[in-house]
What we know:
Elements: E1 4-8, H1 13-22, E2 28-33, E3 44-47, H2 55-72, E4 76-80, H3 84-95, E5 100-103, H4 107-110, H5 117-128, E6 132-135, H6 138-147, E7 153-155, E8 169-174, H7 184-197, E9 202-206, H8 212-221, E10 228-232, H9 236-245, E11 246-251, H10 260-267, E12 271-274, E13 291-292, H11 299-303, H12 308-322, H13 325-346
Parallel strand pairs: 1-2, 1-4, 2-3, 4-5, 5-6, 6-7, 8-9, 8-11, 9-10, 11-12, 12-13
Helix pairs in contact: 2-3, 3-5
Amino acid sequence: MSRKLLVIGSNSPHVSRYINLVKDLFDEVVYVGESTLEIDLPIRQHLINFRSVNPFLLLRSSKKLGEIIQKENPDLTHIQQVNRVAFAAARHLVRQGRKYVVTAWGSDVLIAPHRNRFYKKITNFVLNHAAFVTADSEHMIQAIEQLSPGIRCELVYFGIEPILPGAKEKIVYSNRSLKELYNIGQVIDEFAEFHKQNPDWKLVIAGQGNQEDMLRKKVVQGQLSDHVIFIGWLSSENNCSWYKKATLYISIPSSDGTSVSLLEAMSAGCIPVVSDLPVAYEWITDGENGVIKKAGENALLRALKLDPEKLTIRNADIINSRATGSITKQKFKSIFEQVAHASAGKK
């Protein structure tokens, strides 16, 4: 019997990675999102625009989404990220009596529900009607359980393919989006102070975002143009090559779940510098296998004092025991089987 998975999400490497991971568990995978998903697999894609502020256009988009779900007739739907598209999808799935799994990404359950009643209401709806909810940190699991007590929720990481370290160079690598959440301006400030004592190092900034122009001006104003490089959006292959070369990796967002880029950096032997957030302590023992940045300190300077050889061995062990793609695939397979069994039992 043919089985079809419908994935609803954004054009994100996370979604592409997820589909590549679980594709063998289904006969067919179909994608629905607001923009074309960049993926090598020849999957069918449906595009719907939910960005309009016109309520009539939003209603039209929602109706189209419902029609797509009905026509595709998936055995299971997996929603990636709890947002406005997830809410519209969940409403149609519930009305059509279809099961879905939802994966929270971080700020969608840690920040958005606390903005106002509307965000909390749509978040609760998506979570409460899901057959299963997954998240990639214990902190997020706790937040989800507080929002929607009693739902089935499980810790599942996105899963990575470990990256073997290369010959390390005097490079600090940052590859989070150039958006306010990720505090790239603070990364530049951190490096500026670090650079005074380490003038032969470079900061390499990958990624795109609406703060790029401002950040480039900041580098020029700080007279760091010869030492800070913006390299834009990277392919997976090019991203891996920078991990291999970088000695230090820095990621200091204001809010986060388990970051795939952190796991990749750990596997590649980079010394990680991360924000002082609850999720950081799930992966980093401060001063041993990385640095958790404290207020007022230069964490990059402290990171240079760590033993890179011991750190590389320890972080490789952590990744191989908890966060590989094969482990993630087996967890999702178990969840899908449980959902299918529960659905069969109700027929």
